[in-house]
Amino acid sequence: MTDLLLKGANLLGEKGADVLVRNGVIAEIGSIPAAPEHGGRRLSVVDAGGLVLLPGLVDLHTHLREPGREDAETVASGSAAAAVGGFTAILAMANTSPVTDTAEAAERVFDLGREVGLVDVQPIGAVSKALAGAELAELGLMARSRARVRVFSDDGKCVHDARLMRRALDYLKAFGGTISQHAQDPRLADGSACCHEGEVSGRLGLPAWPAIAEDVIVARDVQLARHTGSRVHIAHVSTAASVEIIRWAKAQGVAVTAEVTPHHLALGTELLTGYDPVYKVNPPLRPDEDRAAILAALVEGVVDAVATDHAPHARHDKEHAFPDAAFGMLGLETALAVVAQVAVRPGLLSWAQVADRMSFAPARVAGLAGQGRPIEVGEPANLMLIDPDASWTVDRAASQSLSRNNPWHGRTLPAPVVATFLRGECTAYRGRVRGQFDPEEIA
Amino acid sequence: MTRKHLLSSADLSRDEVDSILDTAESMHDVQRREVKKLPTLRGRTVINLFFEDSTRTRSSFEIAGKWMSADTINITGKGSSTSKGESLRDTVKTICAMSVDALVIRHSASGACHQVAQWVDASVINAGDGTHEHPTQALLDAYTLRQRLGSLDGRHVVIVGDLAHSRVFRSNVITLGRLGARVTVVAPPTLMPSGITDWAARDGFATSWDLDQTLYAASPADRPDAVMMLRVQRERMSGGFFPTEREYTAGYGLTRERLARLYANTPDLPILHPGPMNRGLEISAEAADATSSAILHQVSAGVAVRMAVLYHLLAGETEAAA
Amino acid sequence: MVASDQTPSPTPPGARVVMSSGDVSRALRRVAHEILERNKGPADLVLLGIPSRGVPLARRLAAVIAEVEGVAVPVGSLDVTMHRDDLRRQPTRTVTPTKIPPSGVDGKVVVLVDDVLYSGRTIRAALEALTELGRPRAVRLAVLVDRGHRELPIRADHVGKNLPTSSSERVHVVLAENDGGDDEVRISGGDR
Predict the structure, then answer these.
(1) In the complex, which subunits touch A with 3 or more CB pairs below 8 angstroms?
(2) Domains (ranges, CATH) in chain C?
(3) Which of A153, A416, B267, B307 is 20 to 30 Å apart from A121, CA to CA?
């Protein structure tokens, strides 16, 4: 086995140090000389001068599309996209075909992820059978399976029945799970609606739904969490009112956590005017007031984590008129860069805080042992290196994803990911994954 | 003017609108002759690609193209959301694989024409996209009003109906604004478009929930010079936008009584309706018949306006994509 | 033909005046007489000017005829834009009105009136436009200036002035009704 030495890295942007990894674990941090053969073991040395070392990122919200829509993405291609984006763990949403609502289905996704071995794929289990919103799925069996499911979600859809949500929150207490709620009241959000309801949608004649469709569910669910004493997680928070409600709930001691996506932080309703379906997403892009509120909440910590909601789609599902196109954008490969642009560059978040929002906190919410750990001796070496001062231009054709619905195409972003390490093994280097680059290159 | 597409009424400057309406007058004269055909677009291919049914608009475009000597072909598009595997993009690129000069598109989704214009080399003419716009309808309405009232500068036009779901409203408010008209739009709060308050303030038109107050303003300067009634779909009732048809008619319909009162103030007030009309719902039978002489005129005006649009987009030098 | 579509400015340097306002009015007077002579009187005459400058010229010819014969000959305009063969080479042209007198053109002697005859393509378009309006007994052509360089077998019946030009030169017709000031015909450009 080869040891790994990262020389001259800037740990969390706070202090410079060398980091030695042995057997997948951080063995030493400090000033470490690079001898080509040390203690009889081979050593791979990476020049990390000028690079910031962060813990491997953890994504609470990814759509891998396998099984069912392998034309859009597979566990393999999604894992590759995650690895080049600096992720070492991703939680895969349950809205596949068939739905991940049984232990067997969860184990299948889990095993596929292990086989590919580029990131730790942690399956999310459905809350309701077939996402129908009527009956509880086998939450307990999924929790007890090899996949050890702890996060449950009907994402794509909202668990809109209050009684079902209450039962699920209660039931989860037995094994300490959480529900990731896609907050969207189906009665306020009409089936044909395709974007945020406001002046832009009014002018463009696009059927739309109002922000309150999210707010009313968030308000209801924090109360249900309080009442049941259980944990609820709000997926992709996008409105100012949601943020106010979550802030209040946390002040009351409610066990609520929340995530925001990079695209909701950076993109807004003004992009609708070209009718380009690459900007069609659920929750929809919002106006400035909402964007500012969720960014402030992320900085404050009221919103705990950034999650990508990576949603790949085949061309023929997106190349339609806006109201007919599928909802969703890619996000794994660009998430860190976008957060760097909207929060780190303007000095709102430090790299250490980014580590918290994109690794420590999501790992905590998901209950993932071994991920989102501090960069300290004895911890698993799930790490990633970024170049804080460089820029890169996004080329959707160069993506590891099988899909091309990339809203960042052509844009120049900061902080490219240089390398990603999963338990000490380099899974990605400068946009390519293990197997696509020569291991000698990274030295 | 070498405009390539007509996707939105906002594309046209005031001069362009005037120019198209002037050309339409000449085209209207041509229609009255024995030989109605002009050779101007000979050799051009115009495809009417209608994803949503519309006999009236489609035949209007078909006749307009034929009277300009263009090769005009009608194709019925399949609903894009139901055909698996073929995207809207694939559909239009296949159609445009033979050299096509213009695509006239009607689609049930707002923004469909903007999308198509990105994908094909042909000129794209919006014949109605979802609830977004219907630019040639607005031109035809402006033409009709101009024939009846002369210049529209300072004229007060009132538009009544389901504004939230109306593409005719969106195009008309822009074109009438270009021509200097004053517009007031009337609808119950549930049928006002989202963001209407800021939108109306920015674009300089007025809004009201009260039809009677708008029609019978105390000061003659505030009274309407023309009234446009928009179709209200009965399905809006099941969507909960208003409780019953009779309540809608009582508040927002052009009833016999309202018509009489209007004519008492202004005997020849033009009443427009883009059609098809729901007699008894948004417009009474009497008012519908009062507009009937305008309807036949509107049909021939529609052909003339569409001939003018085809001329303005296709006859001149083709510029590089706008 | 292209030259007369432009709005002329005060005599630019390098332009020479070939017809003064006196020359123009004398030429028109003579053309009016020729029309009457050829037609053996004013009966069945209809003067159709080709916009834009053919229209005031047609009116002036009708005025002379009215003076000489005491008869008001019908005057109208014939827009040829839709029948041109060169539309695709330029930005979209504005369409001008066609106004046919109430007595129509069937069985009449239509005299087309234009300011400059050059390639002949405008007149070809005019003949096509005219056939869609009816069936004249005869069609004649009266122009203020014939500058040669015909590309089609078209000839004028009545010419105010023959002006041999080279194709690199431009002919400007200035008429009081269109351009204000005095009438004038100028030639500019050309290789020397």
Answers:
(1) B
(2) 18-165 (3.40.50.2020)
(3) A416
